[in-house]
Amino acid sequence: MPPIPPPDQTAPPDAARRRAAAPVICYPPDTLPPVDRAWTAAIRRALRPVRTTRVPPRDGRAVRVARGQIVRIVCPEGPQVGDLNLWSAADPSERFYSGKTRALHGAHVSAGDRLWSTFPHLRPLATITHDTLAWYGIDADGGAVHDVIGTRCDPYTARLLSGDSYHRCCHSNLTRALADALDCSRAEAEPLVHDVLNVFMCTGFSADTHQYFMKASPVRAGDYLELYAEVDLLVGLSACPGGDCGAEHSSDAAPCHPLDIAVYDTDPALHRPAPAPSAYDRSHGA
Questions:
Q1: 133, 226, 233, 237: most buried by Cβ count inside 10 Å?
Q2: What span, in angstroms and rounded, lies between the C-alpha atoms of 108 and 270?
Q3: Residue 16 lies inside a defined structural domain of this protein
Q4: Euclidean distance between CA atoms 72 and 222, whole angstroms
């Protein structure tokens, strides 16, 4: 990809001063309640396996997870990226809001970060309690894992860019999985599928063109991302057709592997009350 072309007009005399404006964090998280690390350690001490659901390569599954349970997204075999959706089991129109999660916690998430829901609820659906890839940090290319930047591979963009119809992309995988879980049609399920948490995916923005990039995931067999369910959840996961996303996606070209959704019971005495929805009165100034 060529570098961004120079502007078609001359910079003003004070261009350097304008560019030197100090950055300001848009949503300082200082007033958010901190995650209690002692509680996190305690609730992880005595996990009792409930069930594990295997997500086949280039396919999706959705499972129910009760408030207070822990769910792990596990890489059981070769390196594989997964696209994660979360819905409130009580009302699937309340679902994961990747954009607001990104604004509050950053482009990539890890242990201690929360996964927030859509308006008008805006409450944590889940809290990340452990991340075996936390060691990766930010690499020399600006890449990091578990991003809330990307939207999910989908058949519409594939059709736009290649003219082909590809049905094993993450959007379609999640649509089929949610339709099965809700026992509804795919047409009814599709509007509820939303922008994802790209579990295990290593991404960033290129330095020259600021384009979203992906590179081979560092995930290996045994790695997992662990979430505490703050409310009763439907958890949807697609094993991305991009495999480790080191080359391409939206095709059958990349080597792919399964993922597991492992659910655990925890000590009921340590369960937290479900977070209340936003206290905003929804008057919108009327």
A1: 237
A2: 28
A3: no
A4: 11
